[in-house]
Amino acid sequence: MAEQNNQQDQQENLSELIKVRHQKLTELQENGKDPFQITKYDVTAHSNEVKEKFDEFEGKEVTIAGRIMSKRVMGKASFCNLSDRYGNIQSYVARDSIGEDSYKDFKKYDIGDIVGIKGEVFKTKTGEISIHASEVVLLTKSLQILPEKFHGLKDTDVRYRQRYIDLIVNTEVRDTFMKRSAIIREIRNYLDGKDFIEVETPVLVPMAGGAAAKPFTTHHNSLDEDLNLRISLELYLKRLIVGGLERVYEIGRVFRNEGLSVRHNPEFTLLELYQAFTDYHGMMDLVEELFRTVAVKVLGTSQISYDGVEIDLAKPFERLTMIDAVKKYAGVDFNEIKTVEEAKKVAKEHHVEFEERHKYGDIINLFFEEFCEEKLEQPTFIMDHPVDISPLAKRKPENPEFTERFELFITKREMANAFSELNDPIDQRGRFMAQEELFAAGDEEANHCDDDFLCALEYGMPPTGGIGIGIDRFVMLLTDSAAIRDVLLFPTMKSLEK
After folding, report:
1. Which residue positions form the known binding site for Mg(2+)?
2. Name one GO molecular function term (predicted).
3. Binding-site residues from annotation
């Protein structure tokens, strides 16, 4: 009861403080000083460059703009701390420097107000780089109360729902999203430098294929047809390989109607690229170099730390077949197990749960998920997946029950998925038919038969390597973020009305 009364008192106090801010705005407007009438402010410098290049800026006049995060009023002179895009900087504001009327206004400004400051760069007696203000202009009046300074915004639900507050008060969050932008930029730079071209493919598709996932569906009123949000970029990009573009990539949102977790969000950003005349070994070389290059460009090093574990992207990534990984970590050698009946018997002995519809390759994958994934902290390519779980990958010529496919694991998470792409239209049709049977048997994530894609393959697709990389997980890795929501500006959240 005491806690409830305390929360009620806090709400009433907040309401009073908000009311005071509205009154201040009204007073400003009545005196012809409405900040919302100001349309621009010429900024000549940001906090970080003033600090980093102090020798160049010392004694020079600059104009900066940002949000007041703290303020100390001391009679005829005050200090305020301003936060802008790149950090924060102190400003010394004196009555004799900005004028009596302006100083009187400044003293009424609130934490959260956005101001522009013109002044000379100097260093205080304590050695802090600051701006000696000659002008302070109120650019925006904040009518809400920022979270209390020392406790900050720690409620994760509020942080994700009101990301704008999170970005204001948590500078490390702002840094994460600045790095996210840099990561995507460096991915593009790397691929463009390898002669890939960036393309865009449809988001609304009649058939959502290219991955094992349940799609979101919608209805197009004008066409009077049901459509799906794409779950993958694959099948349209491969059509472009057929068309002769040879090296293509797309970075785009995909949508999967699945649950929420620290690793999953229903909409996420995917990079897919396809390169003609190479195979999955070429894709391994490319993705290894890509991860290493982007880390060095963004972080300045290929040695990174994730959740207290040191990850070395400089070393050659380990390469293990899925069969060998299961043998290494589960002690079961599927080279000695030849039938689905034997596989299911071994699964029961090792308490690996499976469904009756599962085939030989599914059982191997279940063993891998159960015993191996948790062991793969350092960069590891898991290769040569069973054909039963790889409907779009080319078979290994010497062992057609397995495919030329790999997944890259780092920090126990799948970071990339790649194939030597299946370009045999007859084999592909058979695989689609097998997927249709799985769907009919209750597998809602099974692929459907895409006749137009098969038609494209019949015109001829060259030998091709392809790869998909989850951008959000890559960002998590390079920013040491624990959950996917920490690297999505606006993650999917359940409505507060439900």
Report:
1. 407, 414
2. lysine-tRNA ligase activity
3. 407, 414
